[in-house]
What does this fold into?
Amino acid sequence: MPYFPPWTSVAEAAALLASGHIVAIPTETVYGLAGNALDPLALAKIFAAKGRPVFDPLIVHIADIDSLENVAQQIPESAYALARAFWPGPLTLVLPKQPCIPDLATSGLSTVAVRLPQHPIAQEIIRKAEVPLAAPSANLFKHVSPTTAEHVAAQLGSKIDGIVDGGPCTVGVESTIVAFEDDTPVILRPGAITPLMIESIIGKVKLKNSSSNPGEAMVSPGTMDTHYQPRIPLYYGALPKDFVIPTNTVRIAFGNTKSSIPASLNLSEIGNLTEATANLYAYMHQLDTPSNGFILVDPIPNEGLGIALNDRLRRASIKKLS
Ligand code: AMP
Ligand code: MG
It folds into this structure.
């Protein structure tokens, strides 16, 4: 029997969410799989649909800055300064949680991750649902995040209660996550709000080396070494000199980098990092087909938005060439 993705209007989505269902919604970063952040049952449905381990906490989405105090407490002035500067937008703040936030949302941590998204449809849905929404990326755990409603339908269409199509995401990578450790701001995950942008508001910040060692408690579990991987092997980094390029290799180019392998797609012909970020996941989805054997990605400068791109590509990459 053919299955039909559960395409949903904004009003239907809000009603579904208010009654404990889970719905994929557009945000400016990537599509999120939303559920009522205050309802443990809805949260359990999100973890189950994604196959996400419960030790990986969710981001809670709100529709205005005033709602921050409903979900978080003991909010440092520097957090407010960042919220005023970059909300609505691709910035997540990790703060002590309010008791109303279920342990399942925070994986038992005493802190909660909060974001006010910029996408007008996301804002409208949160407002209409009248609850904060937990919304991790709407993909299967560890897979490439969706930047279109079609990506969501392909991975989760048969497992969720609705999908709202808001067109392609304009940013294209997950939010920057900032935590406050003893009131010192730390970037747990790089994103479109760059370290320099953050420093321009609150002064020096640390960028956490996010890779986790086995057995060690994870500060930010979603920042695992292996994440965002397509099904066919992707390699990012300098190729060893004697490496034999496999047949059916495809190449994601950046700018005018020279290579003996023809470019299948170019993230940005003019080397623009914003354009490259918006294209990255869509290209990974597009090339992730069995007729391709291997995906190579050109180096990307590790500055500005490139820091987030390098972070995601390192995690998407196979670690060793054999
Ligand atoms: P996403 O999968 O894009 O929804 O991002 C969720 C990620 O946010 C998690 O994998 C964690 O890395 C991070 N996160 C969420 N809550 C917390 C928290 N309380 N403390 C630290 N990191 C968090
Ligand atoms: Mg994710």
